[in-house]
Amino acid sequence: MINVPRHRQGDLVVEIRVPETAEAPLAAGTQVGAAVAMLDSLELGRVPVVTLEEVPRGNWFERLLH
Predict the structure, then answer these.
(1) How far, in Å, CA of 48 to CA of 35, rounded?
(2) What are phi and psi of 11, to 5 degrees?
(3) How does pLDDT run across 7-66, given as a tens digit for each residue?
(4) In terms of Cα–Cα distance, which of 38, 31, 50 is closest to 2?
(5) 32-58 burial, b for 16+ CB within 10 Å, e for fewer?
(6) Which helix (H) or strand (E) holds 61?
(7) pLDDT of residue 46
(8) Residue 11, Cβ neighbours under 10 Å: how many?
């Protein structure tokens, strides 16, 4: 939980930080980044960003396109 003064709630910024690419396959619940709460460039807290479901490895054609 993060406590922010009522008059500063509009200044709260949440940054989602994930890498541009991830290597599949990924199991459900795998951490792929973080959500970071910031106020005036000060990190107030962070929580993991995880996959909600399994991400299977693509077939050779899908991998060729990426």
Answers:
(1) 6
(2) -90, -10
(3) 999 999 999 999 998 888 999 999 999 999 999 999 999 999 999 999 988 776 766 666
(4) 38
(5) eeeebbeeeeeeeeeeeeeeeeebeee
(6) helix 60-65
(7) 96
(8) 11
Q: Which tokens sit at 28? A: 């459900």
Q: At 1, is the pLDDT very low, low, confident or very high (cuts 50, 70, 90)?
A: confident
Token pair for residue 61? 């054609």
pTM: 0.76
- Segment 16-21 long-range contacts (CB within 8 Å, at least 24 positions apart): 16/49, 17/49, 18/49
